[in-house]
Design goal:
Elements lengths: L8 E2 L6 H5 L2 H10 L3 E3 L2 E7 L2 H9 L4 E2 L28 H12 L2 H27 L4 E2 H6 L1 H11 L8 H11 L6 H20 L10 H10 L7 H12 L2 H15 L2 H9 L4 H11 L5 E6 L3 E3 L2 E3 L4 E5 H4 L34 H18 E6 L4 E4 L4 E5 L1 E6 L1
Parallel strand pairs: 1-2, 3-9
Antiparallel strand pairs: 2-3, 4-6, 5-13, 6-9, 7-8, 10-13, 11-12
Bound molecules: 3-(methylsulfanyl)benzoic acid.
The site of 3-(methylsulfanyl)benzoic acid (OVP) has 10 residues, from α11.
Length: 403
């Protein structure tokens, strides 16, 4: 007996428009086929759709590295489209050094200091939206809320000036598309990004960052010798890369979840302290970042199946978050669930360093809605913005009934 277990192969393209539009049937096929699968259109990678293996891969950062890129492209053989992130696309010891600085800047203590400002902006925004909706109008959950809010509060906290902030959405769309194949989505994003790159790098300079903001605090860490002055602008770039399009879609997706699950919104309206768990459950149910890759640094195994050195491992976060092996009734959006262990924000040493800020945004926006709005209902068909990595809405027409 010397049977080598083989990895099942599926003829699935996760980046085909149908699968980006509705990924859940694909997720089920991948989970049911096995703990690790191969995908015919991408013969050099393996994919994990179940929670246990996604979590195991993320937890073993020494075997499954990030430095060769966390998208489909293998930076050992392909040139990254921009200089590598010093945190997302780095491994220890570099990662440890940069992560220490970013986690201090984004710590729970830092979040306490921005809480009042974030709350005030959320309350003002909801007040405006209720007026708009009450005068017979509908509001767009994406353009009038999910984009507006992070584009105001997060760049304010980083210390970026008020002009042309929509560039951050264009940049985010490009970065998350760049983690997939070179398809039409990437080509369109790359075209739009050309004028934006210079704007981004300009806004990473110390002279363009408000003293005391998150961006300036990175430069203070350079002053104290913790990181170099050459590293500082690239670390500020991580704020501008990861801090907006992620929370825009986290907020857009929770609005979608609540509008389509009126019973859950009724519970939130009755008890605004459910704002945090309602946001957390939406992260699980409709994960903004659907996928991330790792790269095997040596011949290894996942769930006993052989994975050769230099293989890209596609971790299906959104699929893990609906794995019935992990979650009872996984397709149900249930704000009474406490979805501890979801991997929407990753896991292990690369787990979202901005998660306290992301949760603050979710909490204060949902709290303001819960207090001021009795019902949130769809007011027409939503449309999707397809992206190789993000689960994103383009429009979400809503009717808000004042409390
Ligand atoms: C979701 C992330 C995403 C995109 C960019 C970066 C980080 C970065 O560090 O540049 S984490």
């Amino acid at each position: 007996m010397n049977e080598t277990p083989t990895i099942p192969e599926l003829d699935i393209d996760p980046y085909a428009a149908d699968n980006l539009t509705d990924p859940y049937p694909m997720h089920e096929r991948m989970r049911e086929a096995g703990p690790v699968v191969r995908l015919t259109p991408y013969p050099s990678l393996v994919a994990c759709g179940r929670h246990a293996e996604v979590h195991a891969v993320f937890s073993d950062h020494a075997t499954f590295i990030s430095g060769a890129g966390v998208g489909l492209a293998n930076f050992n053989t392909e040139t990254p489209f921009r200089p590598k992130s010093l945190i997302l696309e780095a491994d220890p010891p570099l990662h440890t050094q940069t992560r220490t600085v970013l986690s201090r800047v984004l710590s729970p203590k830092a979040v306490m200091q921005i809480r009042a400002a974030f709350t005030e902006v959320a309350e003002q925004m909801v007040e405006r939206l209720v007026d708009q909706s009450a005068n017979g109008g509908t509001v767009c959950g994406i353009h009038d809320l999910a984009q507006i809010y992070p584009l105001k509060v997060f760049p304010d906290a980083v210390g970026v000036g008020p002009d042309a902030r929509e560039n951050l959405l264009v940049y985010g769309d490009m970065i998350f598309n760049s983690m997939g194949p070179r398809n039409a989505l990437l080509a369109r994003a790359a075209e739009r990004m050309v004028p934006v790159t210079a704007w981004i790098m300009e806004h990473c300079k110390r002279e363009n960052l408000r003293p005391g903001g998150f961006g300036d605090q990175i430069y203070q860490a350079a002053d104290s010798g913790e990181i170099t002055h050459e590293q500082a602008p690239l670390l500020v770039r991580s704020f501008l890369s990861a801090g907006v399009d992620t929370t825009v879609n986290g907020l857009g997706n929770v609005l979608f979840a609540l509008a389509h699950n009126p019973g859950e919104y009724a519970k939130l309206h009755a008890d605004a302290t459910l704002a945090r768990p309602a946001f957390e459950e939406a992260l699980r149910w409709e994960s903004p970042a659907q996928t991330f890759f790792r790269t095997a640094v040596r011949d290894c195994e996942i769930a006993g199946l052989p994975v050769p050195e230099n293989t890209k491992v596609l971790c299906m976060l959104a699929s893990a978050n609906r794995d019935p092996r992990k979650w009872p009734d996984p397709d149900r959006y249930d704000i009474g669930r406490r979805p501890t262990g979801h991997v929407a924000l990753g896991a292990g040493i690369h787990g979202c360093v901005g998660q306290a800020v992301a949760r603050l945004e979710g909490e204060v926006v949902l709290t303001a809605l819960a207090k001021r709005v009795k019902r949130i209902e769809p007011a027409g068909a939503h449309t999707r913005r397809l992206n190789n990595t993000l689960r994103a809405l383009e429009t979400l027409p809503l009717r808000l009934t004042p409390a």
